[in-house]
Description:
Layout: E1 2-5, E2 11-14, H1 17-24, H2 29-47, H3 49-55, H4 61-77, H5 79-82, H6 87-107, H7 112-139, H8 146-175, H9 177-203, H10 206-212
Amino acid sequence: xxxxxxxxxxxxxxxxxxxxxxxxxxxxxxxxxxxxxxxxxxxxxxxxxxxxxxxxxxxxxxxxxxxxxxxxxxxxxxxxxxxxxxxxxxxxxxxxxxxxxxxxxxxxxxxxxxxxxxxxxxxxxxxxxxxxxxxxxxxxxxxxxxxxxxxxxxxxxxxxxxxxxxxxxxxxxxxxxxxxxxxxxxxxxxxxxxxxxxxxxxxxxxxxxxxxx
Length: 213
């Protein structure tokens, strides 16, 4: 990580290609990829929630109310407990909640209560997953590259949240809202499968269990 003095007298972080290559060739790649995929899920759903709600004659404000209350509440109340648990298992469970919420949006939402419930499940899964995988990105970075890993983690998040809606808009225009929901479901499934794969792989290497417990 290269740093240059700023006018405030602090170091300004800058991406180093050599450091980034080391990070992306380490296990830190997986939480970085997961936060980007999670950002795509949230960016796609939040940016076009008005279209989704309209297709079901619902008030889109319920989504943001439920999501924000759950995300903020879970981070304030239980994030401290969750991040002290086994990170691999927590990431698997929480990314599974995200996947479950997308299935709820597709298959269960037909009134205000089910709509709000799906948003709450998404908020809990998404809000807590971020905290868990942020810790994984820091812990699994190569020695001396922790700051670079966290910088790439933040970059992946913003690419997902703000970049994916550009593609999502085209999908809606060309294929419709149902196609976007299937795309988001596929992204959420990939995100969960990464966490499952990591958990299974770690189970094959008992020496890593103690390090991540």
